[in-house]
Amino acid sequence: MLKPGTTTLFALLSLCACARAAAATDQIVIGDIDDLSGVYADVIGQGGIEAVNMAIADFGGTVLGKKIVLLSVDHQNKPDIGASKFREWADQNGLNMLIGGSNTGVSIAMSKVAAVKKVPFIAIGAAGASLTGADCTAYTVHYSYDTTALGNGTAGAIVKQGGKSWFFITADYAFGTQLQEAAARVVLANGGKVLGAVRAPLGTTDYSSFLLQAQASGAQVLGLANAGTDFSNSLKGANEFGLTKTMTPAALLAFISDIHSLTLQTAHGLYLTTAWYWDLNDETRAFAKRYFAKMHKEPSMNQAAYYSATMQYLSAVKAVRSTDADLVMAHLKQAKINDMFTKNGYVRADGWMVHTMYVMQVKTPAESKYPWDYYKVIKVMSGEEADGPQSDPACTLAKK
Amino acid sequence: MRAQIAVYAVLAILALAAPFLGLYPVFLMKLLCFAMFACAFNLLLGYTKMLSFGHAAYFGSSAYVTGWLVTARGWGTIEAILAGVALATLLGLVIGAIAVRRQGIYFAMITLALSQLVFFICLQAQFTGGENGLQGISRGSIFGIIALGHDRTMYYFVLAVFVAVYLLIRRIVHSPFGQVLKAIRANEPRAISLGYKVDRYKLLAFVLSASLAGLAGSLKALVLGFVTLSDVSQGTSGEVILMTLLGGSGTFLGPVVGANVVVALQEYLSDVVGAWVSVIIGAIFVICVMTFRRGFVGEIQGRFARGAGKL
Amino acid sequence: MTTVFGVPLPAILGQLMLGLVNGSFYALLSLGLAVIFGLMGVVNFAHGAFYMLGAFAAYVALQFLGVNYWCALILAPLAVGLLGIVVERLFLRHLYQLDPLYGLLLTFGIALIIEGIMRGLFGASGKSYPVPPLLQGGFNLGFMVLPIYRAWVVLASLAVCGITWFLIERTRLGATLRAATENARLVQAFGINVPLLVMSTYGAGVALAALAGVLAAPVVQVSPLMGSSLVIVVFAVVVIGGMGSILGAVVSGLVLGLIEGLTKVVYPEASNIVVFVIMAVVLIWRPTGLFGKE
Questions:
Q1: What is the pLDDT of residue C4?
Q2: What was the ipTM of the complex prediction?
């Protein structure tokens, strides 16, 4: 009597788990585990999936005679979902490569799985420099940007232009503090001064008190060591309180989607660093055009990175004629990356993909001639300038 | 009585054989941890009618302590688990002492707000790794004798703990202490007039619930190998309420069933519906509250209430 | 330059000013919650979600219907209030005779549904809503520049709080409402349609939340997540003020805004938790809250 109820339930659930398909070895399986619905959904999300699909199509849909298949799932910014999906795909779906992450916490969890399961993981979107530092693994590649490159870019360019005194508004968590430290290091190294910094709790919507403190400090530059909604809210506030008239705003991490939603009215004059911009050259424009047709917005540097990373992985597989993780990783680490994303990129021993970074300034509404014409290039930084040719000493792989 | 034994027998066989049936051990362990969490929570909601809206505080903080002791201090597995549980107990004592003075809604609000405090402390504290969380927690071994790295071994360990906790909860409910709780739940003023120090009983129940929730958290940290802010978040507190409600508060197997359903739903739905998971969970909440108040097991029991004994 | 806590006086004054702005905002939000709880005994967990809907209603109205801010101030609360009435009629009404915890759980579920749907439709990142032209610019107060819009928020919030308080405590309608809370049967016996009254009360409380949302839209990014973090703070405010008391909610909202403002200067990392710490302290010292009635 009570049996049917509960035991059937258990049995059903068990069946669900068993019903998972066994590994398909006649396919090349690429997995994308990302934030598809939360705070990173706009800068990566579905756009990332689209970019990977474009790459697969451009590559021909097959490699080594096998069809390329893409699995995707939303990790909802939960490391347990990310890590367990990764494990499950590796154990049961014959996963050959994982791309994605977005969130540093989830990415670190997934990189640990990558090391255990020996599946290459190309991390994009996570900013934590520790992914190629203390948390590095032999199977992790970190594309696009990290806190070091961002700090070097924006802070370096502004200080050299004369913005010597800085005040930071920092998101109070690991990412924010790392960004601030990276930027502050550069400021001090170039003869500047940090007049003050204030830590705003993550998710603060009203920055007025912090902005007031920034203004009171008399600094020339307002350094925003935060991202996403935090960044948008703080910049909006800075405008409202008239700070942008007296201080130069510097975004330590901002995407084109942020600028688009803030509008040039609010964001003009802002400095930021990016790995890629849709309007840089004909190749980038061609990619962006195709992307725009599907997604109705211009791609961010991350979505371009997805395309490039997928292409590079597939090329590596083709070159070594195998999906063996060690062979592929070895190939990736000695290949030169010359594509739509970057012209002279390469993967360092610790997994960081060294590439050109651009310091941009957001145009004024008058300067913008067509939709999404938002940035003008202030400085082009070589990969070595951005993140150093040397591997992060904290990474044990770097000892090679 | 017969039916009861039969059900438990079938469940026991299924549980013991599970890893060999091709079921994914890590997923099963996750189920067990959450089932434990829900059972601990049910001790409070089902048997004492106290709705704690911040139970993730004990679950998560214990997980953090265990995780940190193992990774940063190299403590042994069992010692780390016990330390985590100790913290959860202490936290339960402190928060409980403040909350228990009030009832119903006020009690819920206090537990909610205080657990938010715990969340923010975890967010700020250095050792928790903040947004990134604690990663790479190794499972270690039981007193250096039985290594827990292999999924199957760990599964049996977690299963054993789960069974022990389940039996403990049954024992507590059926004990004289449990009877007093029942009396308090039925008619608090009368219990007071009978001379019982009602607040003390409630506090003890609260602390027990918090400790066991902590145990579940520590185990989860070891099973999955990481602890993050979501483990102390409002979302997790809400989830455990849903699990208990869905399965049936006031029954023993209810929370277990509820936990299995919710965890399985999240795992499999995340493939299909992504963001809409919270809409579905919200909808289930609403349905449960409106029409399904006794939960799965409660409903089933209600239909076959003829002296078959409580499950 | 005089300093307090090592912070220069102009900075303190600036923060206090801002604290006042935030406080009046908290007061408006707590008001809706206090009205619903005080008059219905329902803990409206969906308050944050309705606040968010109010902001989105204004955003959508502007983007797709060309409705400006001033119209949105009236229309959005009405629309969202109507939704609240539907929720009351369909769901809440059936739960009054049960343990009030069910009402809490129901509104919790409704909040999840609303937030999930908005996230699915709009994504999680914020949308920009412009400050209405009439209210752009700022007053130079000497120690800071106060944006005109923020001054408007203070005035609007305090006005609405005042009107609501007056309506409930000093008019016949309010008296009827309060009587219905105490003894619904008796009031019904007098011929008053109590269910209608209760339904309208919920709708009104929800409308207040939506109004707060519209006021907030030009200041913060309009995002589906904007309500969930705020709702717990607002609850803490209401608990501190005393859950049945409208005056308590308003006063605590204001005072807490000020305290939060000061904390942001002195110890910014704690500004998130200062409300909860105060709540814990108040509850230990005075379990029914500062103005509580029990």
A1: 58
A2: 0.81
